[in-house]
Write a structure and sequence with these properties.
- Helix content is 42%, strand content 13%.
- With 537 residues, the protein is α/β, with parallel strands linked by helices.
- It has an eleven-stranded mixed β-sheet, with helices on both faces. Strands 4-3-2-5-6-7-8 form a seven-stranded parallel β-sheet, covered by helices on one side.
- α17 crosses α19 (516-524).
- It is elongated and about 85 Å long.
């Protein structure tokens, strides 16, 4: 799996690479000069890498390039980008913000001098007062945003805010260095997007943060890639990131082993409480996915109205009932299960909520983790005291609406993820927060972001399939934390396979469930990224 960095981790890696400017200033002159030379080399390397990307996107269009540079190291990167472009015959204009004429940091001062020496004063437009110098822009231009990077944590104000809005409104293809100017380093609540640069491409120096995977930031970041900057590799290797991004090779390594001589008794039994009058389809989808997960046996417990449907739609599964006609009232079974899932289509009748309360208290006393999804979560939202009875290390799988009903309305995906971290820690549960980039939050604060899937998964019953798959993996011996991560990834791959077969708009939950076996095989056949012949995206 790949690292997702925190702002602190990125700062530590960059400090190991180029040192801390304040500490460097206190060194004796020979050491100070050597340290500043190392910083200058890094700035030049970053500028050259950004220039290469600008030229790649510019291709043979002859588009005019305008560079905006701030007064700190990000401005130095921008100035070096312009200098490298001039060296390649692309005569970029630089608009440098140097209020008062004396606010440039040491890196920007040095980069400014190098630019003037190589490109001359005709291409440098420097703002030294509050009368902003701005070019006339049009959609055909390429705009390099080097105003602020991660070193500027506060929202843009005053003239910078005006500049950001003008850059956004006047058009042009925007390439941001490090992060779009004005964007928060970490997950942030309450950002005003129109006051932040809207990049078409973001070129990050070390790697992504969690903010790169939040839907509300998509219009800010655009497409992103990590520059081939010469960061300190030892510092990167020493980094123990709490957040990670899944890949097929990483998931392959945690999927349960399956011996050629295995019997169904070796592969676990799944017990599913699902279905009610009018919502038996959810029970069908969940049960079908559990059967496709590789589990040895699946038993579905539902109301009597589901009997003929379940026996016809999923004959390999066993079906049992508590003798209630329309909904489940008693979440009880004599099945000797290895994993248990509750929720798809059970409704939220008062008797169902009462029965769920008894069930959760029993599982809590027995210290048996469970999977809770869909209507199980809606029942808990109706009776919030049930949160206290969810067994430790259970997995809940809410989408945004279900999460907000459980834990209160959240203004953004960033706020929701922060709340999920708080709730996972408080209740000692695993929260699989479903979205375009599904996040699995562990009780210890780790966050695993899913990197598989397609918008074809946005179809009714898709979540029920995920629940059955997750329970099936747990029945085969996977611990809840890893099963949640693996289920999200395999579910995404199954969606991709279903879309290839049926078209993205034509996929149903049935199609996704039917592809789970193929998805598991595809993941198990994965090879490390470095062993692939084709280049990384």
């Amino acid at each position: 799996m790949k690292n997702i960095y925190s702002a602190r981790e990125i700062a530590a890696i960059l400090e190991a690479t180029i040192g801390d400017l304040h500490k460097i200033s206190e060194l004796p002159e020979p050491a100070r000069n050597a340290a500043m030379a190392r910083r200058a080399d890094f700035v030049c390397d970053v500028g050259a890498a950004v220039a290469e990307e600008v030229l790649r996107q510019r291709a043979d269009s002859g588009a005019k390039v305008v560079v905006f540079a701030g007064d700190t190291i990000n401005g130095a990167y921008a100035l070096e980008t312009a200098r490298a472009l001039h060296g390649r015959g692309c005569f970029a204009e630089v608009y440098l913000i140097n209020l008062g004429g004396n606010l440039l940091g040491a890196d920007a001062i040095a980069a400014r001098e190098r630019f003037l020496n190589d490109a001359g004063e005709a291409f440098l437009f420097e703002t030294v007062d509050f009368n902003l110098l701005m070019p006339t822009m049009d959609p055909s231009m390429i705009v390099v945003d080097g105003l602020f990077g991660r070193e500027h944590a506060a929202a843009l104000k005053g003239g910078y805010q005006v500049m950001a809005r003008q850059i956004n409104e006047q058009g042009g293809h925007i390439i941001s260095i490090d992060i779009p100017s004005g964007m928060a380093n970490e997950l942030s609540v309450g950002m005003v997007n129109r006051n932040i640069i809207h990049a078409d491409t973001t070129l990050t120096l070390v790697g992504p943060t969690l903010s790169f995977y939040m839907p509300e930031n998509a219009e800010l970041i655009g497409k992103w890639k990590t520059l081939p900057a010469p960061v300190d590799r030892e510092a990167v290797r020493a980094c123990r990131c709490a957040s990670r991004l899944t890949d097929a090779w990483g998931i392959r390594g945690i999927l349960p082993a399956r011996e050629a001589t295995a019997t169904k008794a070796d592969l676990g039994t799944v017990l599913i409480f699902a279905g009610s009058y009018g919502m038996v389809g959810a029970a069908v989808m969940c049960t079908r996915a559990a059967l496709r997960s590789g589990a040895g046996k699946v038993v579905c417990h539902g109301p009597r109205c589901a009997f003929y449907i379940m026996q016809t739609a999923v004959p390999p599964a066993m079906f049992e009932t508590d003798n209630s006609d329309r909904e489940i009232r008693r979440f009880e079974s004599n099945v000797n299960f290895d994993a248990i899932a509750v929720g798809p289509g059970i409704g939220h009748a008062e008797d169902t909520v009462d029965g769920l309360e008894v069930f959760l208290k029993a599982m809590n006393a027995a210290k048996r983790p469970v999977v809770l999804d869909a209507d199980a979560l809606n029942c808990i939202a109706l009776r919030p005291s049930l949160l206290d009875h969810i067994p430790a290390r259970s997995v809940i799988t809410p989408h945004a609406g279900e999460f907000d009903r459980l834990f209160g309305p959240q203004p953004s995906s960033s706020a929701r993820l922060l709340k999920a971290c708080e709730m996972a820690r408080k209740y000692r549960i695993v929260i699989l927060l479903k979205s375009h980039f599904t996040q699995t939050v562990w009780p210890d604060g780790a966050i695993i972001v899913n990197n598989s899937g397609t918008d074809a998964l946005a179809t009714a019953g898709s979540g029920d399939v995920l629940t059955g798959l997750l329970a099936g993996l747990m029945a085969q011996g996977m611990i809840p934390e890893l099963a949640a991560v693996a289920a999200a990834y395999v579910h995404g791959v199954a969606g991709e396979l279903a879309a290839a077969e049926n078209g993205r708009r034509g996929v149903t939950a049935d199609d996704i469930a039917l592809e789970i076996g193929n998805a598991l095989e595809a993941v198990l056949d994965a090879v490390p990224a470095k062993a692939k012949k084709s280049p990384n995206k």
